[in-house]
Amino acid sequence: MWELISAGGWLMLPIVLSSVVALAIVFERLWALRSSRVAPANLLGQVWRWIKDGQLDATRLKALRADSPLGEILAAGLANTRHGREIMKESIQEAATKVIHELERYLNTLGTIAAITPLLGLLGTVIGMIDVFTAVMVQGTGNTAVLAGGISKALITTAAGLTVAIPALFFHRFFMRRVDELVVAMEQEATKLVEVVQGSRDAEPNGNDVAADPAIRQAAKTAQGN
């Protein structure tokens, strides 16, 4: 491996560094963008149990906000229920903007790596071919070792750049799609929260087709009036 890096010339250094950064981002985002961490399946049901039992206080709101990105969005809405539907939705949108920014962290860097590493490889190719033609001009075509060295540098840097760029591009697209899916899921949960709290929805916000609990509706009206 070291021989390949040395043969590729100095341009192999930024390519190798880019590969290390890309690998770190991939592992970090795979951990950070888990559905169970971003949008826990039963979180909204738990919130409604707190409301039903009269346990939704400032302490639980703080814990909800720190629990997950979805919890942060729901807590922003719940903290403004008494101000009406529009203020509640605006609070949720503001929190969602911050959450989405956090979900997309490092993805621009990963996309940049996917874009620049092939260019670095191409630059290495150009430099290698310049070395080849310079050797031809100085020594003629008889010294095959010099010619092979320049061609080898060109091929190694190109291969290295593509080797880094292809997985980086794949994971960049993969994570962008994952963020979109998570945003849609959180948007649906937040919409259920607003509709039930403001009295526009009769079904429980847990995904089940059952009638709403009257105690939940009463708690929602109480939260709206406070």
From TrEMBL:
One of its GO terms (biological process) is protein import. InterPro entries: ExbB/TolQ_transport, MotA_ExbB_proton_chnl. The chain crosses the membrane at residues 6-27, 106-130, 150-171. Residues 66-187 form the MotA/TolQ/ExbB proton channel domain. One of its GO terms (cellular component) is plasma membrane. Belongs to the exbB/tolQ family. This is Biopolymer transport protein ExbB. It comes from Halopseudomonas bauzanensis.
